[in-house]
Amino acid sequence: MSLLLGKLRMARDAGGKPALRQVWEAASLRLRRSPVGISEYFDYGIWHNSVTPARRAEFIGWRASSALDRALNAPQSRVLANDKLINHVILRSAGFPAPEPLATYTTSGRRVDSETVLTTKDEVLAWLRGDVYPFYVKPISAGYGRGVLGVAGMEGERLRLLDGTDIGLPQFLQPFDFEPYAGMLFQRPLKAHPAIAALTGSEAVSCVRCICFVTPSGPVLHTAFWKITVGRNMLDNFSHGDYGNCLGDVDPASGRVRRVISRMGPGGEIAHHPGTGRALADFVLPDWDNTVRLVYAASALFPGLRLQNWDVALCPEGPVLLELNTESELAVPQAISGKGLMDDRLRAILADIGQGEAAHRAAVASRH
């Protein structure tokens, strides 16, 4: 209760509605047919006086987000995105820019290309003692940055990480035994585009998440947001602000950063990078037109996934496809922008997809 009262006061003081009005709105949204949770009401900024009833109706909660993913992404196609080895095999075989694989660890000896294949942890240890640094390692099947580390070198029995910390070999190898990860993928690090490095003060990649709907009329980039690294962080993960990184709402048409937050909820909006003091709003992401073209071209490789979430690294050599994800977390872009996703544009996109499905069913029925 004290936490809720604190949010009510913060929202009111940050240009929001009176507390009783907030309670009524939040309860109404929680009880509607497609509910928005109480915490989502505050995270999204619905409490602000500028949010009209029409705009309030455009926000969706995690239940609707999950329902969209289930409706638009075929179960049999999910592995093509969520298994990083399969995804990279497809991308690299089609000639799309993707991180260079250095090694793969699976007990079955799977691989992407001609990288080193490791099937035991003893082979991993031997590989780590070679000239293999720096590298990033990530689970083959995981999302949200779980299990990802950037490693700069090895000193004795400890690994020096790209953020300046270190980790012992037993702790490093622990995720290798976690069966749901299905193994680990080692990749050569990418560097941020010079314009981004100058703004963040770091060569660590600050990737952009492109949420793309694949319709019968072609792919549509509906929403984009930028994951902004801060300080010595080696990853651009946000996790509700726990890592100290920031998130920026990006105009899909121009690549211009429109709004930035350092945390969700009241008081989370910022104007300047916490580390460098450089202005974030109105910064235009480099190579934006090429980024959109790249996402559109790659989306055609996955016709069973009509809601695609691409993480793209903006690098000196151009945009690079880091990975494709399903199971969209559509709460995040709403919290960054302060705008609901279910706008007229998305309704038109979903109508286009629905008409395509109806035409497909009719064509199938006509053959019987």
Structural notes for this entry:
By secondary structure, the protein is α+β, with helices and mostly antiparallel strands. The chain has three domains: 2-57, no CATH class; 69-84 and 192-357, D-amino Acid Aminotransferase, Chain A, domain 1; 100-187, no CATH class. The chain contains 13 helices and 14 strands. The chain has a seven-stranded mixed β-sheet. Strand 8 (208-215) and strand 9 form a beta hairpin. 39% of the residues are buried.
Secondary-structure map with pairings?
Elements: H1 2-13, H2 19-31, H3 38-43, H4 53-56, H5 62-72, H6 79-82, H7 84-93, E1 101-105, E2 116-118, H8 121-128, E3 135-139, E4 149-155, E5 158-161, E6 166-168, H9 169-173, E7 184-187, H10 194-200, E8 208-215, E9 218-228, E10 246-250, E11 257-261, E12 269-270, H11 288-299, E13 307-315, E14 318-325, H12 331-337, H13 344-366
Parallel strand pairs: 1-2
Antiparallel strand pairs: 1-7, 3-4, 3-7, 4-5, 5-6, 8-9, 8-13, 9-10, 10-11, 11-12, 13-14
State the oligomer.
Answer: single chain
CATH homologous superfamily caption of the largest domain? ATP-grasp fold, B domain
- Order of helices and strands, N to C? HHHHHHHEEHEEEEHEHEEEEEHEEHH
- Integer count of domains: 3
How many helical elements? 13
Give me the Rg, rounded.
22 Å
Structural class: alpha+beta
Residue ranges: pLDDT <50 for 5 or more in a row? none
Trace the largest sheet across and list its strands: 2-1-7-3-4-5-6
Which word captures the global form?
A: globular
β content, as a range?
15-25%
- Termini separation comes to 60 Å
What is the averaged pLDDT score?
Answer: 92
The CATH class of the largest domain, by name, is Alpha Beta
State the helicity in percent bands. Answer: 25-40%
CATH architecture of the largest domain: 2-Layer Sandwich
Secondary structure tally: strands: 14
CATH topology of the largest domain: D-amino Acid Aminotransferase, Chain A, domain 1
Sketch the major β-sheet. 7 strands, mixed
